[in-house]
Amino acid sequence: MEKFEKVKWMQLPRDVLIGHGVLEEISRVCKHLGVRKKAIIVTGVHHTKKIAGERVLEILSEAGYEVNLEEVPSISVESLEHVKNVSSAKKAEFILGVGGGSVIDTAKIASFELGIPFISVPTIASHDGIVSPRASMKDKDKGNAVSIQAHAPLAVVADTKIISSAPYRFTAAGCGDLLANYTAIRDWRLAQRLRNAEFSSYAATLSEMTANMIMENVTEIKQKDEQSAWIVVKALVSCGVAISIAGSSTPASGSEHKFSHALDMIAEKPALHGEQCGVGTIMMTYLHGENWQRVKAVLKEIGAPTTAKDLGVKDEHVIEALTLAHKINPGRYTILGDSGLTYEAAERLAVVTGVII
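RE: above sequence
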């Protein structure tokens, strides 16, 4: 009998706090975690800094923490190096990422490379990076986004009062990123069957559940209030946990994400990541032979883009992105296969699903 030697290592947050006004509990969370006293807050410029970054600085300072605040305009090699090399970071014993996806990913990678804990404090609910152990950064040479291994946050503090006050577009984009789990899981199962890819039923089930949370709560989400932010944040947290269980972004990133990353490289002004993934999910659901009309209807009802026009990109850029998508993260097998779509097939796909007219 073959000896069993399988090992699984999962990184999950210790504390997850979601709800109205929970930002005020940030010092209590830090004390509960037992983190040391020197910290750096990575936050966005202007608005994010004012609505949350400065308040976290104030709360922690009053609680006796030695805290410095650093602003980053976007995630880039330059922003990352700046955060890592400021004198306060070299002395820091933990990092807080307070802001949107770019801010949180910057803090996540910096904390990982500095070897210190990270606390996620999202101010918008636009994608699943608020909990996952992965971060996205543009490849300097190729121009496309690459997924980077980091570590899961030690804690997540998601204040729905703040998140619901952000433009609703971000929450709708988060729904698009979550619905993408449908095609991501189907791609993963396909890779298991055709390429013997390692597959986790646990992670897949949890990931699909988060997509179902969006499907089943459309009426509540489209109210654009704090309750809708609550539903989407809970789903994003569950999605991040699924990624941690799998040990990769596979449960939440498949052919639809490849399309989005390809579009980022082509379009003059790409839309939000989750918006593009939502549109990609419509088309990839069609390729899988499943109910793409339902996906499109849910996105439309929520108020998320469903067409190239909604995304603000050219029809020809959608077609080109579809033909190039298979080249993104080529090690991840999806419905697009190794050869991708011909121009004619891509055009037909976009027309049949109504993404272009």
